[in-house]
Design goal:
single chain, 731 residues, alpha/beta, Rossmann fold, 3 domains, six-stranded mixed β-sheet, six-stranded parallel β-sheet, 19% strand, elongated, nucleotide-binding
């Protein structure tokens, strides 16, 4: 067998029960080989295993003919393997020159010297006296690459070398890789998501899918095959984008002007608003994904919504989410002792555990999954997490953790402990997991209002009593009880096979929204469907709608019967049961069949009568009970409801039927009832009809009768059967 600089055979790597690398085989004889794939496919695990940071369960890794799979990282480094890690990992307190001198050591015969590095990266020479924390992301990446080159490696392993870099720096890194390949001094294994870079620097590209090398193909063929890029990678190449014509640019600027508002720093000032010292123009055309100009307006409006276009790509069937490994997550830099106590208690009960660090300080910890790995999942890279703004860092890490955990299979449960910051971080990930996977948060805030932490998820909030700060007689008992509770839930969790068998026998589940004033309609619909469907009714009090949509996102529903959308009224007017801006989001993301209506949009909900804001004192009210006051909506408010709902319906790609009850939208909106106002209702209906774009899949229909009348119930059942597939025994 010919000697190759890198030869990997049948590599098997696990994280607990999660099978990360599944029989990976790869050969790099010389030059540059790119490995591409979506997030979560095992690319970083492959890097970590090659350089010794992760131990393989079985398989072979040979560098220049020598087996290294059982060696320690420092031994692998001495054999000539250089590593450029994802996230750079530079020392904040060391200057650039100190970094480089430390990496270079005292070797006199090295081909890569500090002086050669400065020639290759003149920017580092300019910044030689600056500390690592004072460098930009691009400068940190230059430093990380230089640090690896100074070891004169035979094999250079680079994990996402262009992640988060400006285009001009990406081009520089790309050219450097091409030059290294041409010089032939070393072989380079590049893990990269930028298809343009991956195909430019190497002749062959390995495509990784679900922990396996799906195929090895010619780089030029992959660069030219956009359909294959989309199918296997979920992205297109960033280069060779269609030019923007002057007409398109003019149209885009006109549309963007309807969405954005230009703020100025002071009266008479012409200086545009700056954010973090950087000017933020509002007229740039998006070009990374070739977004058609006609979609710019909706994209701009939706860009703040908590949506991830890649969710469908990375969706994992619920049966594959279930495992036995419990994730102990939290800020291990400040709560390490407490979190390790929970870990030890779980292990003593025979529960497999994997620790995940959510720290934002940048300090190293002993967690199985380091904070840098989690932070790397942020949409803008780990540099967005490790900043000097603590609040911004916590928010960014919460977002990164949510993206990280939704790509993790075989989870038995998630447990954490902390204060308000730790609770924010941990529950952000818990909320994206499917309902049914145990989630437990030991927190100092558990005795207060926890709605913003729990959302629509099944998170158990466990009051810590004493602060989660050190181990004492109280915290040890509370943390032990929490660990035992988690162990009990995991012990009773069905395995994937049992869940799949149960799913096949179950009635399909349908989510239905109800309010007291739409109860007769929902009861009648449920009675007509319950023989064949598992009818799950949700109280439309803000959290009820979110809970239904959480189940929808978890793929535990087969359809939505969203008859009561009153939460939209409270959101827009300011009631106590508001929806979030993501209302209808699950139907948009999943494409599940959706039947909706305007139930209880004739009212806004407040608490006791004396709690109603003064500006509404002259409005029409109904005292539902001493703690709930209902206020009749106006025509202008109804118009706003209709336009907002219509825009959300337009974003749905699945089958949609939206029904408008001409006889009233609630029990109080019937003839001779206090909220009966046909003219106000008609304004609502017309706003929806004018806003919604009709398609073969998207219909809006008027129905004669009140929402609680039999003709309306008949119309709901008819619409439901028209857009749902033939009955299948699955949830």
């Amino acid at each position: 067998m010919a000697k190759a600089i890198l030869r990997i055979e049948d590599l098997q790597v696990f994280y607990g029960e999660s099978h990360a690398l599944q029989g990976v085989s790869l050969t790099l004889e010389s030059g540059v080989l790119s490995v591409v794939g979506r997030n979560g496919m095992g690319k970083s695990t492959l890097c970590n295993t090659i350089v010794g940071l992760k131990r393989a369960k079985s398989g072979s890794i040979r560098v220049d003919g020598r087996e290294i799979s059982a060696l320690e990282p420092h031994e692998i480094h001495r054999l000539g393997v250089g590593y450029v890690p994802q996230g750079r990992r530079v020392w904040p307190s060391l200057t650039v020159d100190e970094h480089l001198r430390l990496a270079a050591g005292n070797r006199r015969d090295a081909s890569w010297t500090v002086e050669r590095v400065y020639q290759t990266f003149p920017r580092l020479a300019e910044r030689r006296g600056n500390g690592g924390s004072q460098l930009s992301g691009g400068e940190q990446q230059m430093l990380a690459i230089s640090r690896a080159l100074l070891s004169d490696p035979k094999l250079l392993v680079m994990d996402e070398p262009t992640e988060g870099l400006a285009p001009i720096i990406v081009e520089q890194v790309e050219q450097m890789l091409i030059d290294l390949a041409a010089e032939g001094e070393m072989a380079v294994l590049v893990i990269e998501q930028n298809i343009g870079v991956a195909t430019a620097v190497s002749n062959q590209v390995a495509i990784m899918v679900n922990g396996r090398i799906n195929r090895l193909m010619d780089a030029r063929a992959l660069a030219a095959d956009r359909e294959l890029q989309q199918r296997l990678l979920g992205v297109g190449r960033h280069a060779e984008e269609a030019p923007v014509t002057p007409a398109d640019a003019a149209q885009a600027r006109e549309q963007l002007a309807e969405v954005y508002r230009v703020d100025r720093t002071g009266a008479g000032s012409a200086e545009p608003m700056r954010q973090n010292g950087i000017y933020r123009p509002v007229t740039d055309l998006p070009n990374r994904w070739n977004v058609p100009v006609t979609e710019l307006r909706q994209a701009a409006v939706d860009k703040t919504a908590p949506q991830d276009d890649l969710k469908k790509v990375f969706a994992i069937p619920f049966a594959e989410r279930i495992g036995r490994t419990v994730l102990v997550v939290g800020t291990f830099d400040t709560k390490g002792k407490e979190l390790r106590f929970v870990t030890d208690r779980l292990k003593s009960l025979g529960i497999p555990v994997r620790t995940v660090d959510l720290s934002t300080s940048g300090r190293p910890t002993s967690a199985d999954v380091p904070a840098m790995q989690v932070a790397g999942m942020h949409a803008r890279g780990s540099s967005s997490v490790f900043t000097n703004d603590r609040g911004g860092s916590v928010s960014a890490m919460a977002e990164a953790f949510a993206r990280w955990i939704e790509r993790e299979p075989r989870i038995g449960g998630v447990i954490s402990a902390g204060g308000s910051g730790g609770t924010t971080l941990a529950t952000a990930g818990m909320r994206v997991l499917p309902v049914g996977i145990p989630k437990l948060m030991v927190s100092t805030v558990a005795a207060g209002d926890v709605a913003k932490y729990v959302g629509g998820a099944d998170i158990m909030m466990f009051h810590s009593v004493a602060d989660v700060q050190g181990l004492n007689s109280i915290t040890e008992q509370v943390l032990s009880n929490a660990a035992h509770a988690m162990a009990g839930m995991v012990a009773q969790l069905p395995n994937a096979e049992a869940w799949e068998a149960k799913r096949k026998l179950a009635r399909p589940a349908v989510g239905i929204t109800m309010f007291g004033v739409t109860t007769p309609a929902v009861q009648a619909v449920t009675k007509r469907l319950e023989a064949d469907y598992d009818c799950l009714v949700f109280h439309a009090t803000g959290i009820g709608g979110r809970a239904m949509e959480t189940l929808g996102d978890s793929r535990l529903l087969s359809a939505f019967l969203d008859l009561t959308t009153t939460e939209v009224a409270d959101m827009i007017v300011g009631g106590v049961f508001p929806a979030t801006e993501d209302r209808f989001g699950a139907a948009i993301r999943t494409g599940l069949p959706y039947v909706g209506s305007t139930g209880a949009l004739d009212m806004v909900n407040f608490g006791p009568r004396d709690s109603v804001p003064e500006k509404f004192r002259s409005r029409k009210f109904v005292i539902h009970n001493p703690n709930v006051t209902l206020m009749r909506t106006t025509r202008d408010e109804n118009r706003a409801f209709g336009e907002w709902i219509g825009a959300r319906l337009n974003a749905m790609n699945g089958p949609v039927r939206f029904l408008l009850p001409e006889g009233g939208v609630s029990m109080l909106d019937a003839p001779d009832q206090p909220f009966h106002d046909p003219e106000a209702d008609n304004v609502l209906f017309e706003a929806i009809e004018k806003t919604v774009r009709r398609t073969p899949l998207r219909h809006v229909e008027r129905v004669r009768g009140n929402i609680n009348d039999t003709p309306f119930v008949d119309a709901v059942i008819s619409a439901f059967h028209a857009i749902t597939p033939k009955l299948q025994r699955r949830a």
